[in-house]
Write a structure and sequence with these properties.
With 280 residues, this protein is of the alpha+beta class. It has helices spanning 78-92, 105-124, 182-193, 201-204, 206-217, and strands spanning 3-12, 22-29, 33-35, 38-41, 47-57, 62-76, 95-96, 133-141, 146-156, 160-166, 176-179, 228-232, 237-245, 253-257, 260-261, 268-269, 272-273, 278-279.
C-alpha cells in the first residue's frame, strides 16, 4: 500500500527564518505502488498541490479575486487516488461566486468526499475488493485563518460512504497516518519523541525521520521507493526535493524528486532545468 504522515510542525525553519521558526503543516510519504506482492512503480506521487482559484463577474468579464494552494495526500488504489486529485484540482481551479466568498478547507473536503465516494463506486465495479482509497486534505485555511487537516475515510457498510473528519491540531502529539502499519508507525513516532527532553527541532521532525527510515530500510513490506515531502505554510503548499548527499570523496549532492534524479533529461525543458526546494 503506502504510508503518509501529516502533522502540524510548530518549529519549521528555513534559510530565511532560522531564528524565527514558523508553524506549517508537513506531509511525508513513500513513492511505491504495489499490486499484491509485485512492485509496479517506485516513483509515484502520493502528495499533491491543490490550486484554488475563485472568480466573480463584474458585468464585463471574469475577475480572479482569490488564489491559494493547499496539500493533498492519498493512500490506497492509485486509479482512484490519481483521478481524485486531477478532478478535484480542476474543480478548485474554476470556482465562481457572485459575492466574492472563499471556500474553507472543510468545505473543500466535503466536496472531495462526494467525489471520492463516486470514484470508489466506479472502480469497485471492476476491482471489487481493491478500490479502497483514503485521503488527507490540509493546509492554511484562509476562510478561518487557521491551519487545518481533514481526513477522508471510506466506510463500507450497506452502502459505500466517506466520513469527513477534521483533525485535532491543538494536541501537538497528533499525527494523521494514512496507509499500512498505522499503529506500528505511530508507536515508533511516540517512542522516538520520548527520547527528547523538550519539543526541539528533532521532536517536531520525528514523523518525517521515522518515515524516511522506514522507506530507506524497507522496514515494512509494500512501503518503499523514495521519500516525498510537502510543506503547507500560510502562503502556499509546496513540494520539496530530497537532497541525497554522496559518499565522502565525491563532490556535491544529488536531488531526488518523487524518487527521480532531477539531473535526468525528463527534468530539462529547453534551456531550463526543473529545480525544486530541497530538504536534507
Amino acid at each position: 500500500m503506502t504510508t503518509v504522515a501529516v502533522w502540524l510542525n510548530k518549529h519549521t525553519v528555513s534559510a530565511l527564518n532560522k531564528n524565527n521558526p514558523i508553524h506549517a503543516i508537513w506531509a511525508v510519504s513513500d513513492s511505491r505502488i504495489t499490486a499484491r506482492t509485485s512492485i509496479l512503480l517506485d516513483s509515484s506521487p502520493k502528495l499533491f498541490r491543490l490550486n484554488i482559484k475563485c472568480q466573480t463577474f463584474d458585468g464585463e468579464g471574469f475577475i480572479v479575486y482569490f488564489t491559494h494552494s493547499i496539500g493533498m495526500a492519498y493512500s490506497g488504489n492509485s486509479l482512484v487516488g490519481l483521478n481524485f486529485y486531477v478532478k478535484l484540482n480542476d474543480i478548485l481551479g474554476g470556482l465562481l461566486n457572485w459575492n466574492s466568498k472563499i471556500p474553507s478547507i472543510y468545505e473543500v473536503s466535503i466536496s472531495g468526499g462526494e467525489l471520492l465516494k463516486q470514484l470508489i463506486k466506479e472502480v469497485g465495479l471492476i476491482i471489487t475488493n481493491g478500490a479502497y482509497c483514503e485521503v488527507a486534505i490540509f493546509g492554511f485555511c484562509c476562510a478561518s485563518q487557521k491551519f487545518k487537516v481533514v481526513y477522508l475515510k471510506p466506510e463500507f457498510t450497506n452502502e459505500i460512504g466517506v466520513s469527513v473528519i477534521e483533525q485535532e491540531l491543538n494536541n501537538d502529539e497528533n499525527v494523521l497516518l494514512l496507509g499500512d502499519k498505522k499503529q506500528d508507525i505511530r508507536d515508533l513516532i511516540s517512542q522516538q519523541r520520548e527520547l527528547y527532553n523538550d519539543k526541539n527541532l528533532d521532536w517536531w521532525n520525528t514523523p518525517m525521520n521515522i518515515v524516511k527510515n522506514i522507506v530507506k530500510q524497507e522496514v515494512f513490506k509494500g512501503i518503499g521507493g523514495g521519500v516525498q515531502t510537502g510543506i503547507a505554510t500560510q502562503q502556499e503548499f509546496g513540494l520539496l526535493g530530497e537532497v541525497m548527499f554522496v559518499p565522502e570523496g565525491n563532490p556535491g549532492a544529488r536531488v531526488l524528486y518523487q524518487n527521480l534524479n532531477i539531473s535526468e533529461q525528463i527534468f530539462k525543458v529547453g534551456d531550463c532545468t526543473f529545480f525544486p526546494p530541497g530538504v536534507a
